[in-house]
Amino acid sequence: MSDAGYVGAETDSDSDAESGSEARTDGGATAGSEGARRSSNGFLGDFWVNFVRWNLKAVRNPFVVVGSLLQPVIFLVLFTQVFGQIATGAISRGGGAGISYETFLLPAIAMQVSLAAGAGSGIGLVNDMEEGMFEKVLVTPMSRTAVFLGKTAAELLRIVVQILIILGMGTLLGANIATGIPGAVGIVVMGILFSLWFVALSNIAAIVTRDQESTIIGANLLQFPLLFVSTAFLPLEFLPGWIQTIAKFNPVTYGVDGARALMLDQDVMTVLDVSQFGGIWNTLVPAIVVLLALDIVLGGAMVYLLNRASSSSVR
Amino acid sequence: MEETAGRGAAIDADGVELTYSDGTEAVKGIDLEVPEGEFFGFLGPNGAGKTTTIKTFATLLSPTGGRITVNGFDVQREARKVRESIGYMAQETSVDLELTARENVRFAAQAYGVPRDRRADRIDELLDLVDLADVADKRADEFSGGMKKRLDVATALVHDPPLVFLDEPTTGLDPKARNKLWDYFQRINEEGTTLFLTTQYLEEADALCDRLAVILDGEIVAEGSPMELKRQVGGEILDVDLADSDERERAAEIARESGVFESDADVTVSDDGISVTAERAREHGTDLLVALRDADITVTGFNIRAPTLDDVFLAITGERPDLDRDDGDDATATTAEVTAE
């Protein structure tokens, strides 16, 4: 039969998960249940159990916490030290007088952290599939939506912490967040918004390949070209024509420009000509719209694939 | 309600079919009833449809035909109720290697909604049951294969389910680890838990199960107690290897005619010699060797064994199972060998 059959069946069992618990309270399955009596956790309980598990795993695995922060930190330190003088000069010639490269680069590094952490989401999923934990969780009565949201929330928490660390380090290196604390919070929110499409993408890679190496390689291979063919490291006008063209269609540009607008308190978006919102909102509004649209499309594709994978998990 | 028909039976399956999206018919109409408290075995070679069937019963796959009730609940319409009332242990050991043994069991206890006030006791109880109390706070990636498997067992039992599915639980374990698992299974079965076990080892089914179904190519080809099934094979098997394969027919003739065995003995010519299936064949082994020596036939190998799964299939279906037919697993390494104890 077709895949549609499984998806349909999954929908049935999912709706049962939400509504069925009340339908039968006549104790049809209480036989032999003295001892550790079962009770339902509810959606929040299921969410919490998984949130705790993934946080515990992250803390246990130094590679996840430190490793994914290492590359952005190296970029931040080396780029500012090696290119700092030239880049600061170039930026001020391009009309950004008084903006240090540290300040210019920091929002891009914050988005790099989001990318790296987003890549980790798919790796976590494929790891669970290989260890059999994916299936083990599917056979429990937990709400599958809560399971997935718990895991994602743990990953977002990690992104928040890592971006805050990066912003702190950048400030120590001399970067200046012109919008202050609210701006820093805004950059964190932008980081979350920006990470979600990549979370979805890395999960899609995990479900499609079901192979840890492929997921890691795929996510990492994509990260660097995406960063370089965007406005992350230099203003758009200093990039060659073909990169300018690609940068327009590159989600990284929107995340970085959004974060950078908050960092500099300026309208920095040059890939789109938006002027009706005033000030930094000319950057923030299009950035948020583009990222949200991308999150919804890729997120939807991921949910569809995840549903299919969990209702026919054999192979 | 219709479901009342399923009461009293842990599993009630009726005409279950499962066809994968690529057209593979993994399960072709299975009828099965497993009463509460039974230790039921599902026996078959790799690729026969055991895992597909067990996953269908455990709500991991949706049947494309037929009806299944588990603990009185429909697996499709009441999937969550089914999941609450079963334990499931997958063929591949499934533990979170980054968590400790205790954390793994705790996660399962929370996932199955074991009430908070019972949780700590229950976790200790289970770690004790599977002999992991000493290493409860060690991470699972430090464990041996057998220890991981035992941890997996513990996590499948946290909510004290009335029915537990065990998919080839001992494949790949050494005999010591295997015997330990057998002990746990027997213990929880004696306490009233229904167990549904799949295996490709006749020996395992024999040691544990009250009743067996043999599945071959997606269909149940035989059902009964281990004794009943083995009776279909008819006793023990003597394999005799000969130095000269041209002597095989003559040796078979001697085995049939010399009066060494009872008249219902089944003598066949094999690749290297002859093979005799008979009741109490082992008692007459030396007589056969003497008879062959008297006829100047040189014997190079001699083996007495219990019937294997192959032999059961041979007896049931009249043909050797095609063990190469498989869905991609590494089937060849584990073609159901059972040697004489």
Elements of chain B, N to C (H/E): EEEHEEHEHHHEHEHEEHEHEEHEH
Mean pLDDT of chain B: 84
Class derived from helix and strand content of chain B: alpha/beta
Instruction: Report the total helices of chain A.
Output: 11
Shape of chain A: elongated
Question: Rg of chain B from C-alpha positions?
Answer: 23 Å
Separation of the first and last Cα atoms of chain A: 15 Å
Most extensive protein-chain contact, per-chain counts: A-B, 51 and 60 residues
Largest sheet of chain B: 6 strands, mixed
User: Can you tell me the residue ranges of chain A where pLDDT is under 50 for at least 5 consecutive residues?
Assistant: 1-38
The average pLDDT value of chain A, as a whole number, equals 81
The helix/strand class of chain A is mainly alpha
Total helical elements of chain B: 11
Radius of gyration of chain A equals 22 Å
Beta-strand content of chain B:
25-35%
Low-confidence stretches of chain B: 1-7, 321-341
C-alpha end-to-end distance of chain B:
50 Å
> What fraction of the residues of chain A are assigned to beta strands by DSSP?
under 5%
Oligomer description: heterodimer
Helix content of chain A: over 70%
Give helix and strand order of chain A, one letter per element, not per position: HHHHHHHHHHH
Describe this structure in words.
The complex is a heterodimer of chains A (315) and B (341). In chain A, 76% of the residues lie in helices and 0% in strands. Chain A is mainly alpha-helical. In chain A, α4 (101-131) runs parallel beside α7 (180-209). The radius of gyration of chain A is 22 Å and the shape is elongated. Chain B has 341 residues and is of the alpha/beta class. Chain B is 33% helix and 25% strand. Chain B has helices at 50-57, 79-84, 101-111, 116-129, 145-157, 175-190, 202-208, 226-233, 248-257, 285-294, 309-317, and strands at residues 9-19, 25-35, 39-43, 65-70, 73-74, 86-89, 163-167, 194-199, 211-216, 219-224, 236-242, 266-269, 273-278, 299-305. In chain B, a hairpin with a 3-residue loop joins β12 and β13 (273-278). Chain B is elongated and about 75 Å long. The chains are: A mainly alpha (315), B alpha/beta (341). At the A-B interface, α1, α2 and α5 of A face α1, α2 and α3 of B.
